[in-house]
User: Fold this.
Amino acid sequence: MKVNQFLRPVGLLLLLHGFMLGFAQNIGIGKHNPIFRLDVLSAANSPARFDAAAPMYIALFENGGYVGYLGSYSGAAPDVDFGTGAGNTTGRVHLTTQATPRLTVRENGYVGINLTSPNRHLDVNGDMNVNGTFYVNANSGTTGQVLTSGGAGASPSWQTLSTAYENDIRFGVQTNQTTTGGSTSNSRTVLYNTNTVSIGTPTNGAITITEEGLYHFEGNFTVAVEYSGQTVGDNTNAIGRLVVGLSQIFDTHYITSFKKIGTGSNWRGQEVFTWEKDLYFTAAQVPVNVSYGYVFNASPTNGAVLLTRSMTGIISGYKIAD
Assistant:
């Protein structure tokens, strides 16, 4: 009887404080009919508070076995941890929407987006958008560079495009060499040079290559002669040569005779050299000069005298690749 008299005020006190014990031993706080072991209903923004000594954590068990925790056990005091415990060697952590895992962290630290079994440190199943600077090995690259694979087991890297249509190394030089009697005059005009660091155009009309790589060269030159009197043009010939450095000859073109052009008291003739050539220069070879010249032979007849001979034209090209 005394017990009942004691329990009545206690029960009344619990009821007044919103603490209810349901028929199935469920406990309700602020709820008259709890449907869970602990059922909390509160009009406050924060219905519960947990405060403990560091490192603080709330342990999570399943069927009596420890699986994980929520707290600040592993990080610094201001940090918040959520994950598996040290003894859980196979469990994974999921962030879900509609009960479907969207982000997964495996036991080995691999992270998957829309993947529950990621096989890389970051494994994404779906589209990815980067709105901002993209870094590779703390390097964002420079304008115009592309990201290229380093192969298996190696990191990718930013590389500068170097193709015939996308690099900035293009050049063209017009030359004019005329010999009158024993005097020779030379002129040179740079038509274009898009990279004066990699390509030089010295006064002798050559192209100076200062960067290693594969280059394409093209030439179009006209060789002309003039004799006093009406001589036989078949006795005149010339050899055009693509010269690298001081004496390396990489290409030759032959003119065995000249076609007569025009009319008049003097005999005039001309022929054309047209050619293309690809050359590769190693780092040890550069800088090197590339030029085009000719060797001239004449045996005039009927007492004719060679008055002038000339070679005019353009040597141009571009870098194909590194």
